[in-house]
Amino acid sequence: MKRGRNGSKGAACAVAAGAVLVAAACSDAGDSGGSDGELSKLSISMPVIPPNFVHVMPWVAQDQGFYEDFGIEADLVSLDTGVTALRGAEAGSADIAAVPTPTLINAVAQGGSAKAFYTYSPKLDVQMVVTEDINSCEEFEGRVVGVDEVGGFAEVLTKKFYSSCGLTQDDVKYGNFPGAEGQAMAQGQSVSGVLHIDEAAGVMREFPDAGLKSLANLWDIVPDWHYAGYAAPQEILDERRDDIVAFTAANIKANEFMRDSANKEAVLDTAEEITGLERDILSDTYDTFLEDDLFPDDNGYPRNMVEFTADQQVELGNIEEGQKPGYEDLVDVTIYEDARALVDEQA
To answer: Which DSSP category does 158 fall into?
Structure first.
């Protein structure tokens, strides 16, 4: 199975797992656009190396020239997890981070200032993939479950899953395998992994003798769970607001482009290059995104989903009730409103 990062026409910069302070090597994140048509440079930390289909929106925007249309030069920096991506933005090594919503909620609960403003997918697109001997949540007891890191996307959803049958973190053992969940299961190092649709299909194909299977579609189990999106520290939102509005406008255009099935092959061209997955797997994934309405509407941060996800962090014991941030603490709706107006003006 081909699985690697070859770069895109936009020359995204991929970095080693865990390397946070890297934006200076990829771009001048503090550069602003000037006059005479100079593009404003933004550095965007994206999670997962290599990306999955759900993450390709900014590369589609790049390949289709939407960033240039709105005066932006986007440097896309791939990191190992959404937690790392957010830490990079908070440390000043990136302007924008693509971050799982639970990670954002937990960070803001601990005093962080980042706010979300647009998403590449509000709904979960992941499955709980398990080894052939696991047939129920209860069978996780005493076993090693594959996660990314405590507080990370996979860990939070794994906890949500095993908690549903009464297990606690003391009943399972964590194995940290970010980006290598399939290999860990195939080698008997863990019994589970939270994998994106295309990623799950890819590892099942890569390890045909491992008996891996999907135990549950998490978007069916927790349909109101908000997945992830773009966020930036409040200081960046204040200092570079016009650039972030322009970035958002380009992503709105990319979302509209991706939702139009007439553009499927162009979307798959980008996805195949960026993810390294086979085209038939990506084609099936694209169809699922359309059929199950996984692409965003409006700003992609419905209040009910964000508040549900915040409540889940309290229920799972990740934050205290008194720490729980409100919707306005987590989402800046004005960025999308101004970006939507910018797209409409260009039409």
So the answer is: H
**CATH code 3.40.190.10 region(s) in the chain:** 13-123+227-346, 126-221
**Domain 13-123+227-346, second-level architecture:** 3-Layer(aba) Sandwich (3.40)
CB 146 within 8 A of CB 172: no
Looking at the chain, list the stretches that DSSP marks H as alpha helix, in order from N- to C-terminal side.
23-26, 57-63, 66-69, 82-90, 101-109, 153-163, 181-186, 197-206, 218-221, 234-239, 241-259, 264-275, 279-291, 303-315, 327-330, 333-346
126-221 has which fold?
Answer: D-Maltodextrin-Binding Protein; domain 2 (3.40.190)
Does the pTM of the predicted model rise above 0.70? yes
CB 56 within 8 A of CB 276: no
Question: Each residue of 104-117: pLDDT tens digit?
Answer: 999 999 998 899 99
